Amino acid sequence: MKKTHIILAALMVGLGFSSCKKQASRSTGWNYNDPKYGGFEVAQTKEQKVGPGLVAIEGGTFLMGATQEDLLYEWNNIPRRVTVPSFYMDETEVSNLDYLEYIYWLNRVYGGDYPMVVQRALPDSLVWRDRLSYNEPLVELYFRHPSYHDYPVVGVSWLQANDYANWRTDRVNEKLLIEAGILDFDPDQKNENNFNTEAYLAGQYEGLVKEGKADLNPSGSGIRNVRFEDGIMLPKYRLPTEAEWEYAAIGLVGNTINERVVEGRKYPWNGDGLRTDHKKYMGSFVANFKRGQGDYMGVAGSLNDGAALPAPVGSYWPNDYGLYNMGGNVAEWVLDVYRPLTFEDVSDYSPFRGNIFVNKKRDPDGSIAQKDSLGRLQYVEISPEEAANRKNYRRGNAVNYRDGDYSSTIQNDWSNLSEDPNSTSKMYAYGETTLVSDKARVYKGGSWADRAYFMSPGVRRYLDEDQASSMVGFRCAMNKVGSSIGK
To answer: How are the residues of the chain apportioned to helix, strand and coil, as percentages rounded to the nearest 5?
Structure first.
């Protein structure tokens, strides 16, 4: 026993010495995080924190596109093998309660001087109106009544969904800084004086400093703002790309053995719309959809999916990634601009159409321009001059690359080159032969009002980014930093 105690004591002393030893650069030998050696700081933790509401989605390769017969003969989802990097995704759709919290914050911070900010963010409750249906109570009740708190928010446009994701980023990062003792909660944030992640990182928001972050630079002031390199704050919440959403929805992680997909799927689960893998739940509906003409929920006393309209966001069973309602309930916005031939054009790694490359707006002296009246930094599209010598892109707006720009058209009339080179007017006659434009955004998944076909992850539909529907909601995603697998 005495010998054991001596060994343990020696180990403790050794661990103490090793923990006190400074980490040094492998290339220069200078210590990190040491004011005596210049104070170059390296974060002690390298693993990314998991943001509230998110589930880790391990990436990989899969066959993106149609998983069943193309009933609409659109041929806009021809299967193609792609790789999706690992990312995070919301476990459920964004609920009315989540969105009410957002509206409350906007009203508290901007409502006095900028009421239009609040008005622009409100869901369009009139999406419930139907000329030959009595839906008027839903106009008044669905978003605000406590009985609907846990139901997915609808009537939200693509633009509004993106604004919500940006706001959520700021609230999560603000809380992380408060929990780390960097800032104190400031109840008096108003107008431009509110915590915005990018403005804070640019030194344009100070807030109520509590302990602050120690500045190890010997020439510094002793206390500094947190930098993104410190690993305390998270990347942006955002809408998932179409490839990410489809990959997460089909959830083949549960059907894979040694890199072989042993059973393909038409939907986010094995089989069709009924559960067949458990005696207790045999025959239960696994999603909320319209079974047939006039059948939204089944017969009284023996309801099928049990929801005439959307169901609460955590209803039914999750797929193999732990995500709820990736088929049915409400369809969901994704980040991409819609093009019929996207699957043929986009990269086979992290496919996405919709890039507009931007820089932070700068003053004539080269410093970042002052934030706007709402406390947000301003951005400008990269100019052709800035991209002239690049090999990977030639202009900032890549939305129409290979599908919609002048170089993609088959024609002889080049007399209108003075028009916007990013316009789709040459290839897509919007309002005449098509509804495709630069505003057309993809939404995925079936809804409470759709037949089963639309719950197939490969099915694509689109709507203008400033329009909304009673059948479309959204959920957020976030980049995963570092390892694809993690610990």
So the answer is: 25, 15, 60
